[in-house]
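The protein record now logged underneath.
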Amino acid sequence: MTITNALAGIAVEDIGEAIDFYERLFGRMPDARPINDVAEWKTSGGGWIQVFTDADRAGASALTLVVDDIAEELGRLSLHGIVPVAKAIGDFFKTAKFRDPDGNQIVLSQPQHGTY
């Protein structure tokens, strides 16, 4: 199998509330709104993160985002009222775990030097 791209999906109950949160998380408006109940952000690596209305599955999604500088991102996010529920430093990664308004898990992860 050759994978050329990936789309991560995050189920939410209220798309308006979710868009507000994810705009603050990503620092920008969605790159696409293909239909009313969907918002999409393109990553610099070419993948997409899709936030969509699905009340039955809202809060059960998980997303890990690899970032270059977790300390910089934590500072930026705190200015927008987004604070981690947990942080950890391991042998290979520094991580910070967040929850969106529905309870979906978002993890920021920064590889330790020379491990990724």
Remarks:
- The two ends are 22 Å apart (CA to CA).
